[in-house]
Each structure stands twice: as structure tokens, then as C-alpha cells.
Amino acid sequence: MGATVFFGCTFVAFGPAFSLFLLTVAGDPLRVIILVAGAFFWLVSLLLASLIWFISVQLSNREDSRLQYGLLVFGAAVSVLLQEAFRFAYFKLLKKADEGLATLSEDGQSPISLKQMAYAFLTMAVVFLHTFWGVIFFDACERRQYWSLALVVASHLVTSGLTFLNPWYQASLIPIYIITVSMGIWAFFTAGGSLRNILSCLSCKQEEDNRVMVYSALQVPVED
After folding, report:
1. How many other C-beta atoms are found inside a 10 Å radius of the C-beta of residue 35?
2. Does residue 66 have a pLDDT over 70?
């Protein structure tokens, strides 16, 4: 039963992101390189944030629970700020390496608890948020739209802060998913998407379905 819960939570949390990876990244070696490099920058930022939090805890009074909770909130805020700082540093690195990269380019009772399910869906939302934040952040850097950068950082701080409301999941998951949907729509239009693109995609799908139905009808043998 434990394995079922593990794989269920894993697929909920990382399944959509893995599908996005297969559809948009895996087929292009250059995008894989960029993804791995971005993951490295993100891990370094988390390492530094963890180090700052660890030192602050060691230098504080561990028996003061209120102080320790405050340090935890402080560590989360520092982590968010460091992640965004490293995101900007990664953007600057990509800009400097743009020419070099261009030369490489080729076109009853559930066995799972409420807490486990909530954290699986929370992880899925955060994975998508980091994707959307990256699109918006890089575009804002390119266009020098500082208000967009501020909104990305602010929404990241708000999302991180909302997790402290757990296990009051309805107070954390609902706002986080509202932020996720909002950032997803923003990232979609930032990346060049439009309502016309959506309608064209749906119309092409409908035409393809009609062709399949006509072809299937033609293959049915007619009885005398």
C-alpha cells in the first residue's frame, strides 16, 4: 500500500511537468542543456538559503519556539529572494552565451491521506509556477519591465508564505492555484500565445477528427 501511495503522489506532483518536459524540451538537445543549467542554478540558490538558515538557527536560542518559527519564515523569504536573484543571474548568463548556444541549436477509504494528496497537488502547482515565473521573468528582463519583475518576486513570496498556513489546506491550496492559473495565462500571452492560436488549434483538431471519420466510413465494406 505504501508503494501505491508513493507512486500516486509522484505522478500527481510531477506527471504534468514530466509531460511538459517530453513535449517541449526532450526533443531538443539545446533545451536539455538549458534545463540542466537552470536546475543547477536553482539548487545552488537553495544550498545558500539552507546554509543561511542553518547558521541562523545555530546562533539562536533553540529552546525559543517562537524565535525558531520566525527564523523558518525568514529562511523561506531568503530562499525566495535568492532563487529570484539566481534566476536573474542565469538570464544574464544566457544572454552572454546566446551566440554560442545559437550555433548548437537544431530546429471506500482512500489509502492516501489528505495531507499526502494536498502536498502532491501543491508540488505540482509549484513546479508549474517556476516554469511560468521563468518565462515572465526572462521576458521582463529582456524588455526592462521592472514592474513585471516585482510581481514575479512578490507572487513568489506570497506563494511561499501561503505554505505556512498548512495544514489548513483550503486556505493555502486555493490561493496558490489561483496564482498558478493567473501566472500561466500571463506566461502564455508573454510567450506569444493568443486566443486566435487556441481557436486555430481547436479548429485543426476538429478538421482532423472529421477526416478520420470520413476515412473510417470509406473503409467500411458495403453489403449487397
Report:
1. 15
2. yes
Query: Could you count the other beta carbons within 10 Å of the beta carbon of residue 45?
Result: 22
Cα 118 → chain centroid:
16
**Is 82 within 8 Å of 45 (Cβ atoms)?**
yes
The answer to whether the CB of 165 falls within 8 A of the CB of 53 is no
- Residue whose C-alpha cell is 478538421: 207
Q: Which amino acid is at 30?
A: L
Alpha-carbon gap, residue 18 to 24, rounded angstroms: 10
Q: At a CB cut-off of 8 Å and minimum separation 6, what does 79 contact?
A: 45, 46, 49, 50, 53, 160
- pLDDT the model gives residue 109: 45
Joined together, the cell numbers standing for residue 64 give 525559543
Q: What are the Cα distances from residue 38, in Å, to 9, 59, 124?
A: 25, 32, 18
Q: What is the CA radius of gyration of the chain?
A: 23
Q: What is the pLDDT of residue 214?
A: 54
Residue 129 · residue 137 · CB < 8 Å:
no
Is the pTM of the predicted complex or chain greater than 0.70? no
For 17, 21, 84, 126, 146, the CA distances from 7, given in Å and listed in that order, are 15, 19, 31, 19, 41
Summary count for the chain: helices (H), strands (E)? 8, 0
**What does the block give as the cell for 35?**
534545463
